[in-house]
Amino acid sequence: MTKPFHRSYWIAGALSGAVWFIVALGLDNDWATPKSSWSFLAAVILAGAATGMVISVLFRRAFSKKSKVLFFALPLGTLPIAIALFAVLVWLMRQSLGVHFHAEISPLSELSLIVETYLIVLITIFAPFLYGLALLNQYVMRAILRKQMPNQALQPTAASRRG
Questions:
Q1: Residue 160 falls within a domain, yes or no?
Q2: Euclidean distance between CA atoms 120 and 19, whole angstroms
Q3: For residue 111, what is the enclosing H or E element?
Q4: What is the pLDDT of residues 76-131, one digit of tens each?
Q5: Where are the alpha helices (DSSP H) in 30-106?
Q6: Is 159 within the bounds of a domain?
Q7: Residue-averaged pLDDT of the chain
Q8: Does 158 reside within a domain?
Q9: If you write DSSP's letter for every residue of 115-146 in order, what string do you get?
Q10: Is 158 exposed, middle or buried (0-12, 13-18, 19+ CB in 10 A)?
Q11: pLDDT band at 5, cuts 50/70/90?
């Protein structure tokens, strides 16, 4: 049975999402997240924090595993899911604040454009950089989980039990 989340884990998830927002903002180049609107930037920071919290919840059990193979493989799952979720939340923010690329582009086409661009561009061009950041982020989340379970080691996997 999984223990309830500690406040520090929620905060770490939200902060990591906010930091990932800064990375996305730097790589976005004012395309999907216009830097001229403070209200939009605040909304997108919240989208980043929400993404970080969702990823923290979805992958908590995997973050708590001891396997080195899983540790290095996990970003292959967390990155695309987080990027897609963040892109959808950015699109929702754009829709709610009335920010559009062009009037003739339908909302669903805009969603598709944002998600596809974020996934393709970020995962292909910036993959090594993002992979390294994901490993660092995952290391921090594991450290927080270790502090929350001081009397328990990280959960061993079948591979780590064998030797």
A1: no
A2: 21
A3: helix 107-117
A4: 999 999 989 998 998 898 888 887 777 788 889 889 988 888 888 877 888 889 89
A5: 38-58, 60-63, 68-73, 75-97
A6: no
A7: 82
A8: no
A9: HHHIIIIIHHHSHHHHHHHHHHHHHHHHHHHH
A10: exposed
A11: low
**Structure tokens belonging to residue 58:** 């979805």
Domain total of the chain: 1
**2 is a domain residue:** no
88 closest CA partner among 106, 110, 103: 110
**Range of the structural domain that residue 147 is part of:** 7-153
Q: Lowest-pLDDT range, 3-12, 68-77, 131-140?
A: 3-12
Q: What integer pLDDT is reported at residue 34 of this predicted model?
A: 67
CA dihedral (125, 97, 17, 78) positive or negative: negative
User: With b meaning 16 or more CB within 10 Å and e meaning fewer, what string describes 88-127?
Assistant: bbbbebbeeeebeeeeeeeeeebbebbbeebeeebeeeee
Q: For the ranges 36-40, 45-49, 88-92, which has the lowest average pLDDT? A: 36-40
| Distance between CA atoms of residues 70 and 14, nearest Å | 23
For residue 91, give both structure tokens.
């699109």
Distance between CA 149 and CA 7 in Å, rounded?
Answer: 14
Class of residue 150 by CB neighbours under 10 A (exposed 0-12, middle 13-18, buried 19+): exposed
Locate tokens 């959960």: which residue?
155
